[in-house]
Each structure stands twice: as structure tokens, then as C-alpha cells.
Amino acid sequence: MESKGNSTVSSDQKTNEKTFASSATMKPHGKSTAASAIAAKPNGKSDVPSDIPKKQKSDVALSSAHGDRSMFFIDVSFGPHEVELRFRLIHFWEARNPNTKELIGQEMLLIDEEGTVIQGFITAGRVGMYKLTSGSVYKLSNFFGSRSKVQFRVADHRATISFSWNSDLKVLENHPVPILEDRFKFHSYEEFQANCDRIVDLYDYVGHMKLVNGQTITDHTALDEVDIAEKRHLCVHVQTHDGPVMKLHLWDNAASEFCQKFISYGRTPTVLLVTTVNPKYLGGTLALASMASSRVFMDTDVQPTKDYLAWLSSNLDIANKITAEVVTKREPVTLEELYSYIKQETAKVAWFECTTTIDDIVQSSSWYYISCGGCNSNTIKGSTSLICNNKKCVKREVTGVPQYLTKIAVYDKSEQAVFAILGDAGKELTGKHASELVAKYFESNEGLGAKHLVPVLQALLDTIGHTHKFIVKVSDHNLTGKTQTITVTKILPPEAPLAIAHLEEGTTPAVSDDVLKGVGDEPGPSTSFEHSAGDRVRKSSESLESLEAKRSKSG
């Protein structure tokens, strides 16, 4: 770590991130270690005072303060080490294979007396051997300095502390030298944008919440805990100072932690800090997604959220510039306008709202498919079992799960079309999961073989003649002419408000391309459309996707 006066900005790499240390721990001379200053200046570029001691390059590798057998993180190199490390365990989490969910090991975020952060790792075979408690101070004897992973790093250090066969971990009670409780590395909107989809280092986000699952932040905002627990996901619209609004997707443990903290406050919190988020483009716009390593903090949990809350309280006029109505608005389109938009050369993937009436259930193909229980992709029959058709899925024993792949003929005052209803959208139409309908059919018709295809059931036929608001996705398959059938991502009753969180890619099953191609066999609509209609839809889509960027420039 290089000494740079009072700045806590530090790394083994030279980047533009802002690094902030928790101010909860006091140094022996009575001064606070460091405080977040992201709330001090709207551009988030403020320096942060710190009196964290820095080791000079001329220092010896071993700390004389602890004897000849102790080492600081900055001196950790590759290879085995028979020395002691003294650190605080900030956080730990499971590392699993994203496809098979097999446990790879346990990852950790550690910080030492100098304020240097490093990643730790325990292999799957040794998970459970050590009693770990976040926030505790430990002494580790004997370890291996392994090379840090290239993707999704949570610390700048080039090495990772890997526990080896002879590693010995003990809790340090009443450690005489204070150790910081946490450390954050914040990125601005521009920095997230520059690193979007690059799968590199993970940084932290802090800002204020505008919407939670489509709901405006008010004193009476309530979360649907059951729905969030079932989907293991929620979407928060966030903004830092007067910058662009972004969607922050929280998954699994991060979604659960958000709910717990949101409810525990007893009032509606406004400030949100999420660590180690991954910037991605979803639907053509920049969004942030939580990772397994992500943690969630609100209003008064840590110093950076306290500082931001203080700024927010004195800058409510700036915080309220972009209203929830502007963020959530989606242009309703007719079927004629929708297909005209698809014909435009400048068209791109986008979501729209169409109010149509169901005319019929297309019965020329099956209304469901058997998906892989692990990744929702289509399956094929092997000699003895089902095989997942997704090459990236390495699940050996595939459990088949019926999923909706129902084509419906719809119409409005302008045109006719065929919609493809996938996954949860089908449940919104019939009130039942496809697997439930299929199971009930076989229970009522004993003796039918497994190869028997279930005909279109009454639950689907009963929807004919009903009018709904369909949230539809214009996909790459539509734009390239592979199919004119439109994918439905959500179905709403006509009077229901639009829920932004369900418009994204993650709300429908991640079906393989061959499933989507299979919905393109229906005849498309006529081609005699007015160009003006398509232009209006195109402009609407472009304005929605660039709203945040334009707002940041216009103030």
C-alpha cells in the first residue's frame, strides 16, 4: 500500500475507485481511522481523510511488532508461508459452481491492522473445519499464498490466503492493535458503465432508493416477502446524488438480507449500499446485479450510509428531481405499431405493453415443454434418462419439470398476432403452474405412458375471450426475422399497475434457443403498416433506454 498523505485510496493496481474505511474503530492516539466522503461532493470524487499507518517499501517483510513470525497482508507472496497473520474477518460466503451448484469452497474478505484487504479461501473438503464469525479477529498460522482469480475479484491484492493442511486458526480476544471493521470501494455511474459486462473486479454501490419492485418509496411502502422469497429476487431503482437512475437487481441472499433490513427499521429506509455488484446491460440499459459475496446496508448501518443520509437530508430537491412516474412509464402500443417497430432498421431489444384479447389457444404444437430442473433449458430423451440441451449445463442427473410454452392467438383493434407465453407468465394467466396441470392430468388418466402428450387443458381454454395487458419482449429472434411470434414476460389485469421488476430478462425461464425458435412457425401479420406508427414506438423505446443518461446531463 502506498502512502499518499491523508487519502485512503489504495490498491496494488492503479484504478479510479474510491476506497473508504469504516470509522467505527479508533486508533491508539484517539483519532478515527477513516470516514466515507462520498456524500461530501455530488461527483463522488472527494478525498477521504485517514491515519491508517502505511508500510514503506523499505520495511522488512515481517512485522517487528509481533515478533519474527508475523506478517502483514502487503507482504504476502505466492507460495507456502509458516508465519502468522492477524486480521479481522469482514465477511465469508459459499463459492458454488453456477451450473451444478456444487460447493467449490468458502471465500472470505479479510482486513489486517494496516487496513489492507485480501481475499481468503477454504477448499470444499475443509469447509466446516474452522468456526468463522463475521467481525471477529483471528490469528492464522501457516497458509499458502495462491494467485488471485482474474474474474469477479473482491480485493485488489494479487494473492489469496488459502488455508492449507497445517493451517491453524484461533480467535484473538482483546487484540491490542485495533483493526478496521470494514472497507468499501465505490464506483460512480461512469465507472460502472466503463466496466459493464467485462467480468472484472467487483465494486460497491451507495445511493438512495427511488422504487422497490415498482413501488415508490413512501412512509407506507410494504414488501411482498412471500413473493420475494419465492422468486429470490427483487429490483430496486437507485440513484447516486443527481446522477442517472439505475436498476439494482438483488438475488438470493442479498434479496433476503434486503427484506430483513428494510422491515427491521420500523420505517421506510432511503439509503442503500450494496457491496461487490456486477455491472451488466439488461434490455439495452446499464444495471447492477448482486453476487454471492454481496452484502446490504441501509440508512445508519455503516459510516458511508450515514454520510449519504446526511447529504440526502439536506439535498431533497436534487434527490427528487426524477420522479417515479417518469422512471416507470412504458409506452402502450398496438399490435400494428409493435410489428411496425420490429421492421425498423434501428430497432433493438425492448419491452412494451400491449392490451389484447385472447382469440384462441394454438393447438398445432404442445402447450408445454419438459425443462431441465437446474437451468430451465429444453431437454431431450436419452437412452435411459433426460439430457439437458444446454451445453453450458453440466448437470448429470436431469429432473424434468413441465414449463409453459403456450402459443395464443390474440387481437386488438389494429391487428392479429401470436404470443408465446413462457414460464411464470403462464401461471399468471391460468393461476396454476404447468407442472401442476400436467401432474393432475396424469392422476386423472391412469395408465397413460410417459410419452403421452397432454392436450390443451380446460384451464387454458377458459382464458379465450379474456382481455389482458401483456408485457411483451421484442427479442433478437424477432429482429432477425427468425420468428414473428412475440414472447410474453408478464401478464397483468387491465387495471393493475405496471411492475418494473418483472420486465427484465431474469423473470422468464432461461430457455435454450431451440425452444424459442420453436415458436416461430405461425403466420405473421400483414405488412401494410404506416411508418409513422413504428417511428413513434421506436422513439419511445430509445427515450426510455436513454432517460437516465439524458437526465444526468440536463440536471
Structure description:
It is a single chain. This protein has helices spanning 189-194, 225-231, 252-264, 303-314, 316-319, 324-328, 335-343, 424-430, 434-444, 458-461, 476-479, 513-517, 531-545, 547-554; strands at 18-21, 70-71, 79-96, 103-112, 117-123, 137-147, 159-162, 168-171, 183-186, 203-212, 215-216, 233-239, 245-251, 271-282, 285-289, 296-298, 350-361, 368-372, 379-381, 386-388, 400-411, 416-422, 467-474, 486-492. By secondary structure, the protein is α+β, with helices and mostly antiparallel strands. Among the domains are: 73-171, OB fold (Dihydrolipoamide Acetyltransferase, E2P) (Beta Barrel); 189-320, Nucleic acid-binding proteins (OB fold (Dihydrolipoamide Acetyltransferase, E2P)); 335-446 and 453-492, Nucleic acid-binding proteins (OB fold (Dihydrolipoamide Acetyltransferase, E2P)). The chain has a five-stranded mixed barrel with strand order 3-4-5-7-6. A hairpin with a 5-residue loop joins β12 (233-239) and β13. α2 (225-231) runs antiparallel to α3 and α7 crosses α13. The longest helix has 15 residues, at 531-545. The radius of gyration is 27 Å and the shape is globular.
